[in-house]
Amino acid sequence: MTTSSSLYRDCARLFMVGFPGTHIDSELAALMDDGIYGAILFKRNVVSAADTAALCHALKTRAGRPFILSVDQEGGRVARLRGAPFTALPPMRELGQRGDAAQVERVGRLLAYELRALGFDWDFAPVLDVDTNPANPVIGDRSFSREAEEVARLGVALARGLEAGGVASCGKHFPGHGDTTTDSHLTLPRLPHDLERLRSVELVPFRAFAQAGLASLMTAHVLFDALDPGVPATMSQRVLQGVLREELGFDGVLVSDDLEMKAIAGHYSVEEATVQGTLAGVDLFLVCHNADVQRRAIEALVKAVESGRVSRERIAQAHRRLDALSARFAHPAEDRLALLGSPEHHALAEGLVSSFTGRDPTEVMLASR
After folding, report:
1. Residue 126's closest CA among 102, 154, 147?
2. In the chain, what are the domain boundaries?
3. pTM above 0.90, yes or no
4. Which of 57, 121, 114, 59 is nearest to 284 (CA)?
5. Quick one: which of 185, 189, 166 has its CA closest to 177?
């Protein structure tokens, strides 16, 4: 399949990829040339703050166009950027126990400040899952609370802080991963609750997020029997179009969780997951590991458009949402690393670090340099 056609580029733009190592390899470079929307960085891509900033700068310079860089930087156990000079943040459960929305919004601003200093545009946070199941192996202390209204209130606060700081937020994992007993990285979880329960618990934070007009949401690779039995939310029109778009009124970017997770890859080909996900309403797909899988996903979408299974208008609709996110949050390659440890950085951390650690914030920030 030729990768030079305008249709190929249009379809490639619905993908954000991961890659190995700390430099731009030939496979990533080719995907960038073919028009992918951006890249996601993981721990495997991060050495030091300076090296990560240099990599972000190289990616944006190489792309020669708005190229969105994303990362999972929640705080607690899910933080790709750790150690000096980054501020150590507690799990969101600890912030939820304090219940201070103003403090949570400041945490969002601090996260944005540190991410922007390295060159990131998009943070896959906050977690909007409600921590209703103590046996949940993947959410737990990543959630703000066991109370849906608190998750909504504090999740919106964190997202507002991120976006005020110039970084797109992404609430996850729609329509709720908090009450599962299995990890979607490893298997396909199922929730048996009826729709009344989902509307009163799981959907509450996502409704608040949609009403707040925030940038993006991420799908969950979870089966919701009451909504669409047997079809993961990422691939379900009833869940994504029916509930999220029509019932909750969300019109931001909808990004899939990684299609290489076992919840999807163990049950569906990446080709079918991509096509069904596009039809369901996903605007951007994460494919985080294998270049061959990334290529296969793009090519499947091209073929689906050529055959008429996916309309060109569905692709254009996704582009419009991605364009809007880029217009607000895509930043050019720039050198901002010196901002970490600056007086403004200290000011953002002041009062936060001391409340988390019991130490003077200036002492903590200086010690991290």
Report:
1. 154
2. 6-367
3. yes
4. 121
5. 189
- Of residues 322, 295, 297, the one with CA closest to residue 26: 295
The Cα–Cα gap between 326 and 328 comes to 5
334-335-341-346 Cα dihedral, nearest 10 degrees: -30
DSSP-derived pairing of the beta strands 190-191 and 223-224? parallel
Q: Which of 257, 283, 289, 345 is catalytic?
A: 257
Query: Regarding the domain with residue range 6-367, which homologous superfamily does it belong to in the CATH classification?
Result: Glycoside hydrolase, family 3, N-terminal domain (3.20.20.300)
Render pLDDT for 126-152 as a digit per residue (tens, 0 to 9): 999 998 877 766 788 999 999 999 999
The catalytic residue among 33, 141, 185, 319 is 185
Quick: pLDDT tens for 8-58: 999 999 999 999 999 999 999 999 999 999 999 999 999 999 999 999 999
185 tagged catalytic: yes
Q: Are 135 and 181 in contact (CB under 8 A)?
A: yes
User: Strands 68-71 and 38-41, how do they pair?
Assistant: parallel
